[in-house]
Amino acid sequence: MTVVAKNLDNPRKLFVAPDGALYVAEAGIGGSDKCFGTGPNAVCVGRSGAVTRIANGVQRRVVTGLVSWAGVSGARALGPAAVLVRRGAYDVLLDDDTVRPDGTNDLGPAGATAGDLISTRGRPAKTKVIADFAAFEAAHNPDRGAGPGAKLGNAPIDSDPYAMVPYRGGVAVVDAGANDLLWLKPTGEISVLAVFPTQVEKLTKADRRRIGAPPAMTSLPVQSVPSCVTVGPDGALYVGELTARPFIPRIARVWRVVPGKAPSVYASGFTNISDLAFSGKDLLVLEIADKGLYDPTSRGALIRVAPDGTRAVVAGAGLLYPTGLAVGANAIFISNNGVFPGQGPGRHGQVVRLETP
């Protein structure tokens, strides 16, 4: 495992360009434009989100000035979540966990594009909105609480677009808050490719203790929270689940999606999936916390799944909160320490490379 970029601010998804350059979306460290709360619990909004290019041993921020919000430590920031480089521009997908029922948010002027896919060419960024996924969720709300064992009804408006991949001339996007997979068509129209159902899981004593549930609560609906999407060698879309609180181990699934057909489970039994990628015909599954996000002893894990279902852990030691995954020529790249800022005490965001045979 070799570090190829360091001192990154909450690095998230990765993108390998045709020329071999690697790009990473940095969620930033917040700012001081608008704050919620005071003292050590304050969350502040700013324009510290960025995109960094890594090539030939050099890292350089090619996009700056994007929305970011975080606590005083700068850890666990939200902001830029994913990036594509297309037609000479940087297309950046922006988080939004503060969406109102009308599709807007409370982040202030700096956060006007939260929940959008934007395009930019400069630094500081001058942006053009390509698609507003928060507004789509507010208007359509494809996830209405439907799922095995779950009651039907209107789920609250919730949007957090978090990952994307080029698809059929447009872009396929997973909305972690809305529990769906969307397609931004070349025409600019957004359509729904899949909605991922809620699971009803049995709660152990440890689960109840973690979430403060009463002893009488023996089960809990757990939302999908799709966190990543990739295109397989068969042309289908593959979507991985983070799953929602209480982050029960080994319940995350990988879905296979073919437009016009119901999504099917391709593989299951994972814990808090943060990203997916294919290496040839093998599927690589990145877990952000192999024992669950509530277990402080968790580390990250990269698991290779062969077409026959055989699994092997490719990497674990040295991975902590890995958030992004990409396959390049003879190498696998991972965003490591993905929920930490680039400066200050403790761990710092980085990108590491794993050599492949």
The figure for the number of domains is 1
Total helical segments = 2
User: What is the gyration radius calculated from CA atoms?
Assistant: 19 Å
Please identify which CATH superfamily we are dealing with.
TolB, C-terminal domain
Q: For the record, what CATH class applies?
A: Mainly Beta
From the spread of the alpha carbons, the general shape counts as globular
Unreliable spans: 146-153
Average pLDDT for all residues: 93
Structural class: mainly beta
Oligomer: single chain
**Number of DSSP E strands:** 27
Termini separation comes to 14 Å
The CATH architecture term is 6 Propeller
N-to-C order of helices and strands: EEEEEEEEEEHEEEEEHEEEEEEEEEEEE
Question: What would your notes on this structure say?
Answer:
The protein is mainly β. The protein has one domain (2-355): TolB, C-terminal domain (Neuraminidase, 6 Propeller). The protein is built from 2 helices and 27 strands. The protein has helices at residues 133-140, 205-211; strands at residues 2-8, 11-16, 22-26, 34-36, 43-55, 58-71, 80-86, 89-94, 116-120, 127-132, 161-167, 170-175, 180-184, 190-195, 199-202, 219-222, 226-231, 237-241, 252-257, 264-270, 273-279, 282-287, 301-305, 311-315, 324-328, 331-336, 349-355. Strands 2, 3, 4, 5 and 6 form a 5-stranded antiparallel β-sheet that branches. It has a 4-stranded antiparallel β-sheet with strand order 1-27-26-25, with no helix packed on it. A 4-stranded antiparallel β-sheet has the order 7-8-9-10. Residues 146-153 have low confidence and may be disordered.
